[in-house]
Amino acid sequence: MLNAAIVGMGWWGRTLVDSVQGKSADIRFTAGATRSRDKAAEYAEKTGIALLDGYEAVLADPSIDAVVLATPHLDHASQVEAAALAGKDVFVEKPFTMTKASAEAAVRAVEAAGVTLGLGHNRRFHPNMTRLRDMVRDGELGTILHVETVMTGSSGLFLPKGIWRTDPEQSPAGGMTGMGIHLVDGMIDLFGEIEAVACQSASRAAPSGLHDTTSVLLRFRSGATGSLLTMNATTPTYRFAAYGSKGVAEISKQSLASFLFQPAPDGPVSAKPTPKPIVGLEVTDADTVRAELEAFARAVEGGTPFPISHSEMIHGVAVFEAIVAAIGQDRFIPVN
């Protein structure tokens, strides 16, 4: 059983804790630290978490095996490096870091210390994403032509100006840090490295003034193309669709519950084409947050390595950095 500390006990930090506390045989949270200690005291007592006086106290506690970071985006790089120097395994929420250079430095620190690094892209662990990954890798979709992705939410309608989540430095390119980065990770996982991006991003309805409507075109090293749309001032939705020469596979619904596959015709379409079946798979009980934390715990204990490689973590940040740089350029920006 991995004894972990949660660092950052806002709504997502609590989501991470609630996914495993008292439910998992692999990981439990025994301690925590947060900037708003008074607000977290009741929750910590309810969940059996000992509140410590800051991140330094967490890293100095020998009873803590690993730290889980649910902290502001700009803190991730230094906190990962500090955990590595303290010999603590570390799981960090996305985005991993904000620049490729800081991502590379964090990975160097982790590798030098020989600790395990996990990254919070929980959608990788959904059974429907596993199904799509298997189809792509087994060639069931044929040659991949294009991937179309959409992830939207409503938080931008309610978050006020002046908090870190609406700080343009913490959350550039609108919904990219909260939602779009998941889509980028899914693309890298299934289709490989991305070589160039173009982006437009605007503020339309968010009262904070933060960008709320962001669209991206992507070009993969394989020659495939992609598109990404993320908005944080509308109804929550999700769509991840892969178009191949042998058919189209699509994951949809906010929970990723729906999976559809439409095979391509066997020959030229006639005036009265024979309808092709659509194969559907509905998954309604997947706890992807618990799955990612348990995968991290097993990797720490020497089991299967965490499924997101260090190179993929760095490349995801490089793509994100290029997307931010591409805003207003009206051209493709290379991913370095």
Can you describe this structure?
The chain is α/β, with parallel strands linked by helices. It has 2 domains: 2-122, NAD(P)-binding Rossmann-like Domain (Rossmann fold), CATH 3.40.50.720; 124-289 and 316-334, Dihydrodipicolinate Reductase, domain 2 (2-Layer Sandwich), CATH 3.30.360. Helices cover 31% and strands 26% of the residues. The protein has 9 helices and 15 strands. The chain has helices at 11-20, 37-47, 55-60, 76-85, 100-113, 127-137, 180-191, 288-300, 310-326; strands at 2-7, 27-33, 50-51, 66-69, 89-93, 117-120, 144-152, 194-202, 213-220, 225-231, 237-244, 247-252, 258-263, 279-282, 333-334. A 9-stranded mixed beta sheet has the order 14-13-12-11-7-10-9-8-15, with helices on one face. Strands 3-2-1-4-5-6 form a 6-stranded parallel beta sheet, sandwiched between helices. Helix 1 crosses helix 8 (288-300). It is globular. The model has no long low-confidence stretch (mean pLDDT 95).
Brief sketch in words of this structure:
The protein has 336 residues and is an alpha/beta fold. It contains 9 helices and 15 strands. The protein has helices at 11-20, 37-47, 55-60, 76-85, 100-113, 127-137, 180-191, 288-300, 310-326; strands at 2-7, 27-33, 50-51, 66-69, 89-93, 117-120, 144-152, 194-202, 213-220, 225-231, 237-244, 247-252, 258-263, 279-282, 333-334.
Order of helices and strands: EHEHEHEHEHEHEHEEEEEEEHHE
Q: Tell me about the biggest sheet? A: 9 strands, mixed
Residue-averaged pLDDT: 95
* Strand numbers in spatial order across the main sheet: 14-13-12-11-7-10-9-8-15
- The count of domains is 2
CATH topology of the largest domain: Dihydrodipicolinate Reductase, domain 2
Strand content: 25-35%
CATH level-two architecture of the largest domain = 2-Layer Sandwich
CATH secondary-structure class of the largest domain: Alpha Beta
Number of DSSP helical runs: 9
Query: What is the helical fraction, as a range of percent?
Result: 25-40%
- CA radius of gyration: 21 Å
